């Protein structure tokens, strides 16, 4: 509660009036040190804390309210695209199968924006719907026929490398296409604001987070586990007690930033199970991201079986009908098919005491 400020001059005037009255009655006059009184009032004013805010997708504290719209980038996760650029600064990442057993990453940025992002890859219909649930802006290079229809219909504000290859999207000479398309935050802003005329500020959905002092995770210990995508693409997570974060590995190769080798550090990992349907002979899929279902949440080296729900287009962990709070920091959501399901896709390594 903000403490009420008292004007030093008013207090001095009041005391002088009192002493004057006492003097008229031949009583002792009490002298007051104005300097000491001013210092006392200033000390009380310093105790008033400025208002604090938190970023809506990371729960991290900030001194100013942030209304920058979410920027979502489709990032390639083919082995030829690793290590990627910009993943360490994403507030939230969805990892979802594209065709075959290779996953694609939907990286959501709101609290911070990397200078270089990529490799950027093409969008699918379910990617577009995910971004729409966050009132986000989509950055991709290419699209499936179903995604193209949604984008052309204006379902989400977007820029695409199909129209800006060589301008807003640059090809790296160090990798081969289609694993070499990169963009920058400056080019993204130029594309959204100057090319498309979009408003880059607006309402931002807020996820539920613990306050730092209230974090107390209980459940079953799970400091190392693996998410298996159809037996061929293995994602490992290892909890680091010294940092309080999970480190991510893809087929035993640690997920780090290209160039700097900075590791990706995660506060929350949510593994959700949902229906996947193959649509055509190219292996494109329809993925149900609205019906809800089984999920497992990992935080602080602890796991809990929960449910997942889509609320306002956002996948959140739920227990007994109430949202489960997240730890401040970055969150990674792995979406796996109901066939074979969580029982086969998720392996928890037992801790040896």
From TrEMBL:
<dbReference type="InterPro" id="IPR023158">
    <property type="entry name" value="YerB-like_sf"/>
</dbReference>
<dbReference type="Pfam" id="PF17479">
    <property type="entry name" value="DUF3048_C"/>
</dbReference>
<dbReference type="Pfam" id="PF11258">
    <property type="entry name" value="DUF3048"/>
</dbReference>
<feature type="domain" description="DUF3048">
    <location>
        <begin position="226"/>
        <end position="333"/>
    </location>
</feature>
<feature type="region of interest" description="Disordered">
    <location>
        <begin position="33"/>
        <end position="56"/>
    </location>
</feature>
<feature type="signal peptide">
    <location>
        <begin position="1"/>
        <end position="22"/>
    </location>
</feature>
<dbReference type="InterPro" id="IPR035328">
    <property type="entry name" value="DUF3048_C"/>
</dbReference>
<feature type="compositionally biased region" description="Acidic residues">
    <location>
        <begin position="33"/>
        <end position="48"/>
    </location>
</feature>
<feature type="domain" description="DUF3048">
    <location>
        <begin position="57"/>
        <end position="192"/>
    </location>
</feature>
<keyword id="KW-0732">Signal</keyword>
<protein>
    <recommendedName>
        <fullName>Lipoprotein YerB</fullName>
    </recommendedName>
</protein>
<dbReference type="InterPro" id="IPR021416">
    <property type="entry name" value="DUF3048_N"/>
</dbReference>
């Amino acid at each position: 509660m903000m403490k009420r400020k008292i004007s030093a001059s008013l207090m001095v005037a009041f005391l002088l009036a009192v002493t004057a009255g006492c003097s008229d009655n031949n009583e002792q006059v009490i002298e007051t040190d104005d300097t000491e009184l001013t210092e006392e009032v200033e000390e009380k004013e310093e105790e008033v804390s400025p208002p604090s805010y938190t970023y809506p997708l990371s729960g991290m504290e900030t001194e100013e309210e942030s209304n920058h719209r979410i920027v979502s980038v489709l990032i390639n996760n083919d082995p030829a695209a690793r290590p990627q650029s910009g993943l360490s600064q994403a507030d939230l990442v969805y990892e979802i199968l594209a065709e075959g057993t290779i996953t694609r990453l939907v990286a959501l940025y709101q609290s911070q924006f990397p200078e270089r992002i990529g490799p950027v890859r093409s969008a699918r219909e379910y990617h577009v719907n995910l971004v729409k649930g966050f009132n986000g802006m989509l950055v991709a290079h290419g699209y499936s026929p179903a995604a193209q229809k949604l984008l052309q219909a204006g379902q989400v504000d977007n820029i695409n490398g199909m129209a800006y290859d060589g301008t807003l999207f640059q090809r790296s000479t160090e990798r081969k296409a289609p694993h070499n398309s990169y963009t920058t935050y400056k080019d993204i802003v130029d594309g959204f604001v100057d090319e498309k005329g979009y408003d880059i500020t607006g309402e931002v959905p807020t996820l539920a987070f613990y306050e730092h002092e209230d974090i107390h995770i209980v459940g079953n210990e799970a400091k190392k586990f693996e998410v298996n995508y159809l037996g061929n693409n293995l994602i490992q997570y290892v909890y680091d007690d010294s940092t309080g974060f999970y480190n991510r590995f893809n087929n035993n190769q640690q997920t780090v930033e290209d160039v700097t080798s900075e590791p990706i550090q995660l506060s929350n990992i949510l593994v959700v199970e949902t229906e996947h349907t193959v649509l055509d002979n190219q292996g494109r899929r329809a993925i149900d991201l609205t019906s809800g279902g089984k999920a497992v949440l990992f935080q602080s080296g602890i796991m809990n079986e929960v449910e997942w729900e889509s609320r306002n287009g956002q996948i959140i962990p739920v227990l007994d009908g109430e949202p489960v709070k997240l730890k401040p920091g970055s969150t990674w959501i792995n979406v796996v098919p109901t066939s074979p399901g969580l029982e086969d896709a998720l392996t928890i390594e037992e801790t040896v005491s």
